[in-house]
Structures are given as C-alpha cells and as structure tokens.
Amino acid sequence: AALTVRFLTRRFIGEYGDMEFIYSHNLTVDGREILFHIWDVPNSQQTEEGSSEEKRIQWADSFVLVYSICDRASFNILPLKIQFIKAAKEGQSQEKVPIVIVGNKRDLHHQREVSSEEGRLLALSLDCGFYEVSAAE
C-alpha cells in the first residue's frame, strides 16, 4: 500500500491497515493520457487460493509483486504467485503477461534479509522485470 500511495500521491505514509483497495489514476506518458486501475491487495489477502485470487488475476493486465527486503517470507512466496499468475493468464493466450518484482524498503538496508542479487536472479529465472525501491524515500 505504501508504494501504491507513493506512486499516486508522491507522499509516504508508513502504516496501513490490512485492507484491499482499487485506485484509479490518470497519467500522461509520451503525450498520451493513460488511465490506471490499481488493485492493491495486502500480502495477508494474497495467500488465499481459489476464486477470489483467480478473479483478481483475470481482472488485471499486468502485475507488480512487492516484497520487503527485510522479510524473507514475503520474497519466498513470489515463485508460486508468479507461476499461478502465468498459468491463469498465459494459458488463455500466447502473449507474455507483464510481471515486475519490486523489492521495497531499500532504505532499511541494515535490516536486509534478501539481497539485491537474489531479487535480480529470481526475476531473471521467471522472466520478470526487477526493481529495488524505497517507498519512504
């Protein structure tokens, strides 16, 4: 949620509840106006399998999966999530589904549990984009 709010408002808010939100946002890219719809799902709600997660996957055109560099468990669930997304989306068409892995909390490097290299290697092995950021900065 912090990363989404930072993207939408340029402000950092450190604490969020465990709620799911859909945001809409207009952005001009290369002279074209683009409307984003962002379905922000907390990690605790992403663990459910079945119809609700399937609905989210079918709804989306692309995916940004965010983990905390300070929380190995949030990183370790990514391969299964990505395989689930690819099976659901790419099974319907021949097009590659755009997926980006983002390691957040780069500013908390002293609490790091997941190295940048591990993030890059995971993204490379799963054919995803990769970034490391700090929503706070």
Automatic annotation (TrEMBL):
UniProt source species: Pterocles burchelli
Enzyme class: hydrolase
Family matches, as Pfam families: Ras
SUPFAM superfamilies: P-loop containing nucleoside triphosphate hydrolases
Enzyme Commission number(s) of this protein: 3.6.5.2
Protein family membership: Belongs to the small GTPase superfamily. Ras family.
Lineage of the organism: Eukaryota, Metazoa, Chordata, Craniata, Vertebrata
SMART domains: RAB, RAS
Listed GO MF terms: G protein activity; GTP binding
Reactions performed catalytically: GTP + H2O = GDP + phosphate + H(+)
Hydrolase recorded as keyword: yes
Origin: domain of life: Eukaryota
Gene3D superfamilies: P-loop containing nucleotide triphosphate hydrolases
Keyword vocabulary terms for this entry: GTP-binding, Hydrolase, Nucleotide-binding
Gene name per UniProt: Rasl11b_0
Keyword ATP-binding: no
Protein name: small monomeric GTPase
